[in-house]
Amino acid sequence: MAIGKVHSWKKVIAQIVLLGIPTATLLFYIIWKANSFYNILQNDWVMQGSYFAAGIVAAIIFYSYRFRFLTTSLLLLGIYFLAYKIIGNYAVGEFDAFFASVKFLLFAVLFSAGWLTGYGFSRSRYYTIFWGALLLCTQIIIVSKTTDFKAQTIIGDFAPILAYSFYIIFTAELIRNMNENEKNFGWFLFKRFIGFAVVIIAILLGIFTTFNADFKAIEQEWGNAKANYDDKQGGSESMTKKNKDGSISNKDQTRLTSSLSKGKRLVFVAKLDNFFKDNKTPNPLYFTAYYYTKFDTLTQAFEIDSTMPDNDLFRPDPSKIPIYFAKTDSTVIKNTHATLNRKVVTTEVYKVLLAPDEYIAPSTAFFCQPIPVADEYKEQYKSAYRAKMWVSDLNSAYFIYNPAGNPILEQFQEQRFEALRSVKDFSGADKKLMDYYTFMPSNKDYDSLRALALRITANAKTPIDKMIAIRDYFLSKDEFGQPLFKYSDNPGIPGIPSASKLNYFLFENRKGYCAYFAGATLFMLRAIGIPSRVAAGFLTIDRSSKNPGWYWFYEDQAHAWTQVFFPGFGWIDFDTTVPDVNTQQAPQPDETPPLNMQDAYFVADGIVTSVDTVAKRIKLDVKRVLFHDKDYETDAAKNIELDVSIASISRDTGAVKLSVVKEGMHITAASYAESLKDLKANDDDSINAVLAKVPAPVPIDQIKIIDPESKKQQKEKENAQQEQPTDWIKVLWLSLAVIGGAVLLVLLTPWFIWQYFNAAARNAKDTRSKAFNSHRAVMYYMNQIGYNRTNAGPYEYATNIDKKFNTTFASFSNVYQKLKYSSLPLSTKEVENVQTFYSPFIQGIRKQVPFKTRLSKFMNIYNTIAYFTQSKNK
C-alpha cells in the first residue's frame, strides 16, 4: 500500500528553499562563531554546518509523507547507537576511538537538531516561534564570550537573528496557507516578500533607533573600554585623556563607572599669587578646565553644555597667542554676576605634559598671556602662560581638606561661612539661571535622592548651612564609629546596567571617587532649590613649605567638585569628596620652580619674509609690537631685521633649530637685551617711531613659532577620523530606503512603459506606424486596467471592449489586421480611422474608469508581466 503524502512537491520545495536553506545558512554562521570559542569543535564549521543542513532537508522530505515522529525518532536513535558501536569496534587505539566518538557525537547532535527543525517546519505550526527564541538564546551565550562588547557588536550580532526570526515565522505561515493550485504562485510570494521586507526593516529600525542609546550605555558600562584608560591601571574611566602626541588634556565629560584610572606623572606646575591676610599663608584655588552642567541619565555622564546661560568659562588656545601678547574676555566677568568680595589674582602655568592648546586656571579666568620658558628650564617645561582671574575672597580649595589646628584657616572658614549666611534665599536671582541650574530629572531614583537631601538639610536655614550639612553627611560615621562614606577608585557597579549609580553610591555601597561625590552633591543641592554645577580640572594641594604659592599638579590630581551660586558672590567652589590620602601625597618630591623669569623689553609679532641661517638673520613683516609692555599696532606691515645669533627657538612641542624657521611662518620674537632697557617711548609715539628707536638688526633672545590654525584643525580632523564603528541604525535606514526605492521603481515600471507606448502612438506620422503603435498602446493600456485579451480573438476582444465602453475599437482592429496580414492598400476612410482613433479612445476609457481604479490596476506589476508573456499570435 502506498504511503500517503501530507504535502505536495510544490510545498516541499517551497519549505526547502524558503525555510531550510535560510536556516542552514544562519546555522553555518552561528557554528562558525561557536568554533571561535570552543576548542572541542576543532574549527570544522563547514562539515558541522553540513550535518545540520542534511538533517533539515532530509526531515522536510521525509515528513512530507505520513510518517509518525515518535516512531521514526526511535528508529533514528537506534541507527545512531548501531553506528556508535561500529565506530568503537573499528577505531584503532584509545585516542582514535575517543576522537572518532567526539566527531560522531557532534554529527549526531547537529543532524538531530536539523532533523527536529525540519520536522517542525513540515508539521508543527508553533515550532518556528520556539526555534527563533532558541536561536536568540544561543546567540546571547556566544556573544557573552566576546570581549568586543560594543554597541555595533550587539546590533550586528542580534539584527540578523531578529530578522531571521521574523522571517521564518512569517514564511512558515505563508507556506502553510498557500493555495497549491495557485497558478501565479511566484507572483503571490513575490508580493508578500516585498511587503515583509519593508515591514521587517521598519520594525528593526524602530527597535534599534529606540534602544540605540541603551546599547551604547551598556557598551560604556560593560564593554571593553580599555582604549579610554591606562592599561596598567585597569580602570574604565579617567579624568584626563592622552593625546596622540603624548600630552594630557582635560575631558569634556566624565562618566560614573566601576573604576577610575590614575596616572602619577607631573602634568604642570603653577605659581598662584593668592594668600591669606597675613600675606604668608597660601590660599590654594582649584584649577578649572570645564563646567559640567548637563547630566546624561542614560550613559550616566556629566557633560559640558555650550548652551548654558551666562557662560563664564574662558577657553582660549594659548598656543595660538603670540608670547607676551594677551587675549582677554571681559564678558565672563559680567556673566559671573559677582560684585561682592572679588579681586584680580594672577597665576603662571608651566606645562610639562599639559597639551599646548589646553588652558586651565582658577575660576573665573578672563586673561591669557603666553610667556617664554627660560633656557635652563626648557627641558622640563614645554611652554607657559600667565592668567588672570576674577576671584572671590571667599573661595578656597579648603573645605574638606581643612588642616585642623591652623588658626588662620579655621578663622577663614568661619568668616566666609558667616559672609555667605547673608544669602537667605534666591529670590533676587535671575529666573533663567535658576531654572537651568536647579533642573534635575524626575523619576523614582531622583525622588529618593530628593528625600535624602531634605532629611539631611532639615535643620539648616540658609543655603550655605545646607551645603555644610551635606558635607557633614559625607564625613559622618556609622553605628560602629567607622566613616560612613569612603573614597575608592573602584566603587563597583549596580547589578543592573541601567540602574542609577548615584543611588547605588548614596544608599548601598557608599564608596566612590570624586565624580560620585560631586554628582551626588549636585543633585542634592538642586533638589532643595540651590543652583549648582560640577567643575572639572585639577585639585590644588599645598605640599611645599620651601616655595609658598607654587603648586605641582600630577595626573592623579585631575578632579571634579561642586560649585554653588550665591547672589552677589557668584560661583563658589565646594569639594565634598572625602580625603584620599594617596592623592594628597606627591608621588615624588616637588622640585625647584622656574624662578627669576626675564621680562621682555621688545616683542615683535609677524610673518617671516626671509631667513639667513649663515648670518643668523631673519626679516619679519610686523603689524604689532610690544615695547616696554605697551602695545603698538598698524594696518600696514613694517619689515624689520632680527639678529637671532643667540636666540632660542621653540614651538609648542619644544625647542627647535633655526633651520626649522621658513619663509611665510608666523613667529613671535622677544628681546631681553640690556641695550633696549633704557630706550623709552613717548606717549604719542606710533609703531614707526618705536621701530626707529630700536637698533637694526634688533637683538633677539627668544623666538616662538606659532603653528597655523589649519594645523590644529588638521590634527583634530585626524583624531576624529579614527576607525568608526558600523552605525547599524544608518545601515537599517539605508536598507529601508533601498528597498523602498526598489519597490517604488517596480510599481512605477508599468507607468514608464505606458509613457513610452503612449508617446510612440501620439507621435507616429505615417499610417502603418501609427496603426501599429496605437494598437500596441491600446492593448497595453486595457491590459493594465484589467481588461486583458486572455483567449479571445482580436475581433471578439475589440467587440467586447466596444460593448463595455461604447468605443470604436472593433473598426480600428479590422483596419489594423488588414495592414498586418493583407497587401491591399487602405481606403481613405480606413486611413482616417487610423489617424483619428487613438486619442478619443483613451480619453473615453479614462472618463468611464475612475482614477483610483486605474491607479491601483496600473501599479500591479503582474498585469505587465502577463502582457509581455501572453501569446501574441492570436
Automatic annotation (TrEMBL):
Q: Which domain of life is it from?
A: Bacteria
**UniProt keyword annotations, A-Z:** Membrane, Transmembrane, Transmembrane helix
The ranges of region (Disordered) come to: 229-252
Q: Which residues cross the membrane?
A: 12-31, 51-67, 74-92, 98-119, 126-142, 154-172, 193-211, 731-754
List, as start-end ranges, the regions of compositional bias called Basic and acidic residues.
Answer: 229-245
Q: Which InterPro entries match?
A: Bact_TGase-like (IPR052901), Papain-like_cys_pep_sf (IPR038765), Transglutaminase-like (IPR002931)
- What SUPFAM superfamilies does the record point to? Cysteine proteinases
**Transglutaminase-like domain location:** 506-578
Does the record carry Transcription as a key word?
A: no
What name does UniProt use for this protein? Transglutaminase-like domain-containing protein
